[in-house]
Specification:
alpha/beta; Rossmann fold; Molybdenum Cofactor Biosythetic Enzyme, Chain A; 3-stranded antiparallel beta sheet; 18 strands; globular; 3-oxo-tetronate kinase; kinase; NBD_C; kinase activity; carbohydrate metabolism
Length: 439
């Protein structure tokens, strides 16, 4: 007799790949066995896990397309039996005035409201991640000690963030009324937050920005949202969700939730992000280790950039020495390339080049990849034909180790990093972790 697979409790939709692993990392830390899918699976065969995270590449596409993909993910997660749903976006609220956070949230609320679910016409938006310096106070998003629009995110090549007031940012994206759960309510505990929710609902608010400056605040908000069909935010708000399921008697304790099988093979680092953090990580690596810089303009001229990079890497790989191949550069240089090639073409060129390099490195025996940048990570996992990831232990806040569990080739170990995350020595630290050592 075949044992019945345990159906997932929490179903998550992430708007990029590194954001998905960031969220999955948080859930694993809370004791939830977590599987991440790359895109919406074709099959509805039950995946045995406590939490499922569908990783989309929808952050910077047209809002209408992001809505279609997100609703498809919701349908698949419903078929998996999930009891609650989570829409995950970046802790820096990366978006444009046209979307996609607001429009996707509206669509998910509408879909869940059609079920007649209680409270499904109201949710929160909380991108706070205090462990990585993202806090919200009076509705304004801070990165460290500065406002979002002074943090370097104002120079993001695809989603420049020039307004730290999240109420204004979100209201420009949604037809729903946006309100604020002030810090005073959060500091006074779960019942105070729920009272604030009720007051906002009565005022016609459908989406509430929630202040949070500490992990304790996120636990409070998570508990207050225990009965919500939909929660939206960064990975930080997920801190409080496993406890809700545990308190309800639905989640067993899993001491081995982060355990991954070992992966043998060579190692490499691919970096495409132009963030300050990734620039610093590239600089640190280059001080003592081999690195090859990809020039987008050379690729645009038709030069054999991929072949040159692989030829550079070959002697190091023969000695089992990891190499970095990067397109990371300064914001000014990014703007210069965008002026010459156009914003979309420049981004696509970098992604497709690094994706081709990932395939070439795998053909040469690389089985352990560290990848920097959300768009780059999406391109790489698609190029490697990764379908699902089992989530392991944390390397740095927001970045877990993962193992690809459904490729046609040998298993792959992956560390997929948001551009803004990680210490300056992250690349070396991540490789040690993927090799089975301490981070």
């Amino acid at each position: 007799m075949t044992a019945t697979k345990k159906r997932a409790l929490l179903g998550c939709i992430a708007d990029d790949f590194t954001g998905a692993t960031d969220l999955a990392n948080m859930l694993v830390r809370g004791g939830m066995r977590t599987v991440q899918t790359i895109g919406v699976p074709v099959s509805n065969e039950t995946i045995e896990a406590d939490a499922l995270v569908v990783a989309l590449k929808s952050r910077t596409i047209a809002a209408a397309d992001a809505v279609v993909q997100s609703l498809a993910a919701l349908d698949w997660l419903r078929a998996q039996g999930c009891r609650q749903f989570f829409f995950k976006y970046c802790s820096t609220f990366d978006s444009t005035d046209g979307g996609n956070i607001g429009q996707v949230t509206d669509a998910l609320l509408d879909a869940l409201s059609a079920d007649g679910a209680n409270q499904s016409t109201f949710t929160i938006a909380c991108p706070a991640f205090p462990e990585n310096g993202r806090t919200i106070f009076r509705g304004h998003l801070f990165v460290g000690d500065v406002l979002l629009n002074e943090s370097g995110m104002e120079n993001h090549p695809l989603t420049p963030m020039r307004d730290a007031n999240l109420l204004r940012v979100l209201q420009r994206q949604t037809r729903s009324k946006v309100g604020l759960v002030r810090y005073g309510a959060v500091a006074n505990g779960v019942w105070s937050v729920r009272a604030a929710f009720d007051a906002l609902r009565n005022d016609g608010v459908r989406i509430a920005i929630a202040d949070a400056v500490s992990d304790a605040d996120l636990h409070t908000l998570g508990a207050a949202c225990a009965e919500f069909p939909l929660i939206t935010g960064g990975s930080g708000i997920a801190l409080g969700l496993p406890g809700n399921f545990r308190d309800a008697g639905l989640l067993d304790d899993h001491a081995d939730a982060a355990q991954l099988p070992p992966v043998e093979g060579l190692s490499a680092v691919l970096a495409g992000s132009a963030s300050k953090a990734t620039n610093a990580q590239v600089a640190t690596w280059r001080e003592t280790r081999p690195a090859f810089r990809v020039d987008p303009l050379a690729a645009a001229r038709g030069e054999a950039v991929v072949e040159h990079a692989l030829a550079f890497a070959q002697p190091y790989l023969e000695r089992a020495e990891p190499v970095l191949i990067y397109a990371t550069t300064t914001p000014d240089e990014v703007k210069a390339v965008q002026r010459e090639l156009g914003v979309n073409q420049a981004g696509h060129l970098v992604e497709s080049t690094l994706a081709a390099l990932a395939r070439g490195l795998r053909e040469r025996g690389v089985r352990k990849f560290v990848v920097a940048g959300g768009e780059t990570s999406g391109a790489v996992v698609q190029a490697l034909d990764v379908r699902t990831l089992r989530i392991g232990g944390q390397i740095d806040p927001g970045v877990p180790a993962t193992v690809a569990t459904a490729t046609d080739s040998e298993p792959l170990a992956l560390a997929l990093k948001s551009g803004n995350f990680g210490s300056t020595d992250f690349f070396a630290k991540a490789l040690r972790h993927l090799d089975g050592g301490a981070s």
